[in-house]
């Protein structure tokens, strides 16, 4: 059995259904919607409206291991996780997915 010398990289392969998320957010009223008046904070910027959604997504994580002899090994771990997705809307109509993070 070859020994591993460490983790080379870790990659997340979780797919976020961005078009479906944006369609869902734009089709319903969000009582948790917040409005930030950026003009009070920074001049020459527009007001931003934002809302959040919780999504359950699945995918896998790849862990690339550095083995002896400069060879690589890869572990693939399936995952199901909840994401917190934040969507924002400025002067353009409709919310757009801005960023998301894992809740686990």
What's the short story on this structure?
This protein is mostly beta strands and 104 residues long.
Describe the structure.
It is a single chain. By secondary structure, the chain is mainly β. The chain is 13% helix and 58% strand. It contains 2 helices and 5 strands, in the order E-H-E-H-E-E-E. The protein has helices at 18-27, 38-41, and strands at residues 4-14, 34-36, 48-67, 71-89, 96-102. Strands 1, 2, 3, 4 and 5 form a 5-stranded antiparallel β-sheet that branches. Strand 3 (48-67) and strand 4 form a beta hairpin. The longest helix is centred in the N-terminal third of the chain and has 10 residues, at 18-27. It is elongated, with a radius of gyration of 20 Å. The two termini are 33 Å apart. The model has no long low-confidence stretch (mean pLDDT 80).
């Amino acid at each position: 059995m070859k020994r591993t010398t460490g983790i080379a990289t870790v990659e997340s392969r979780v797919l976020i259904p961005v078009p479906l998320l944006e369609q869902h957010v734009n089709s319903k009223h969000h009582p948790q919607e917040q409005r930030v008046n950026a003009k009070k904070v920074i001049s020459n910027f527009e007001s931003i409206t934002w809302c959040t959604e919780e999504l359950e997504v699945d995918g896998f994580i790849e862990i690339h291991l550095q083995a002896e002899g400069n060879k690589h090994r890869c572990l693939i771990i399936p995952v199901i996780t909840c994401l917190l997705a934040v969507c924002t809307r400025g002067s353009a109509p409709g919310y757009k997915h801005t960023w998301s993070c894992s809740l686990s």
